[in-house]
Design goal:
Elements lengths: L6 H19 L18 H7 L8 H4 L8 H8 L5 H10 L13 E4 L6 H8 L7 E2 L5 H8 L2 H18 L10 E6 H4 L10 E2 L3 H7 L4 H14 L7 H26 L21 H10 L3 E2 L2 E2 L2 E6 L3
Helix pairs in contact: 1-12, 4-7, 5-7, 8-13, 10-12, 11-12, 12-13
């Protein structure tokens, strides 16, 4: 299993939480905000770049499914190792991971060796407040991450760009360090109640502005239908659509705001700014999901990213 809960239950939980957040935090209105397009000049090329529909072909197939083309070679390289630090060094010596990965302070991993599966799962749920190291704490994880160097680096770059784009909206300033957490053990917990933790998905409705949960549901249903031929069982497809759907909805709303020359509504730090003049956080988030990884509740100066272990 790639998720801690059965897929139908997890999908229901996500829908309930998102709906509750929408009702609690958003000012719902049937009227669109007035648009003063003539006040702002946007280049034709930029309008065309944003006036797009988010591509969804095979999108669900990417959710928590990284490429890992080098998995066979990585596993062969660490065969016989029991110390993850030695395995990490061996992968570096064979050129399967970049030399910079060997001791990069901006890339961290939970360090919980010697625990039972149950103990480890419970400790991981405290992330990002867990002991950390500059290499994974088990040999199998070393191989998994070494198998997709390009995808890992692309996800990190997208994650940092996502956090930087959200910074003007109020995310914590320090998010340059990435903490990699196994998504399966963590239960892919996209919502968290720990203090001093911010939820990446919590900024979807805040940045988009006025909306209704039914609008998000329509995108989720559309994704599930458009990817009906995806190579996955229906339960996992529904769960993947629930996970990625709000982000696709947000990106489409952002693209529309740019196309229509909309301004950030009142009550926000960026009030009055044109969306076209701001970095798009949701395109960066989708790049991360397309790479096969996920965004998790973050804090303690780190952006927490999830990788699947199966």
């Amino acid at each position: 299993m790639w998720c801690r809960y059965p897929a139908p239950i997890q999908a229901t939980i996500q829908a309930v939480v998102f709906r509750a957040r929408a009702r609690r935090n958003l000012r719902v209105s049937e009227e669109a905000r007035p648009i003063k397009a003539i006040e702002h000049r946007l280049s034709r090329d930029r309008r065309r770049a944003y006036a797009r529909r988010v591509p969804t072909a095979s999108l669900l197939d990417c959710v928590l499914r990284p490429s890992r083309a080098g998995l066979e070679a990585a596993r062969a390289a660490v065969a016989g190792y029991t110390d993850p630090r030695a395995a990490w060094d061996a992968l570096c010596a064979r050129g399967l991971i970049p030399a910079a990965w060997r001791d990069d302070p901006r890339r961290r991993f939970p360090w919980l060796p010697g625990l039972t599966t149950e103990e480890r799962t419970q400790r991981l749920r405290r992330a990002p407040f867990v002991p950390q190291a500059r290499c994974p704490d088990d040999v199998a994880t070393c191989a998994l991450l070494a198998a997709d160097v390009e995808g890992i680096e692309r996800a990190e770059a997208s994650g940092r760009a996502f956090a930087a784009a959200l910074r003007p909206w109020g995310t914590p300033a320090a998010a340059d360090t990435v903490l990699w957490v196994p998504a399966s053990d963590y239960g892919y917990q996209i919502h968290d109640t720990k203090p001093d933790v911010w939820e990446p998905d919590g900024f979807i409705f805040r940045v988009v502005g006025e909306t209704r949960w039914e609008e998000v549901e329509r995108v989720i249903d559309r994704l599930a239908a458009e990817d009906s031929g995806a190579s996955m069982d229906p339960a996992r497809r529904a769960l993947a659509a629930n996970l990625i759907g709000p982000w696709v909805f947000a990106e489409e709303c952002w693209a529309e705001a740019v196309r229509m020359w909309r301004r950030v509504p009142s009550g926000e730090k960026l009030e009055g700014r044109y969306y076209a003049d701001l970095p798009d956080p949701f395109a960066r988030a989708l790049e991360l999901f397309v790479a096969g990884y996920g965004l998790l509740p973050s804090g303690d100066g780190a952006l927490v990213l999830g990788y699947p272990v199966d």
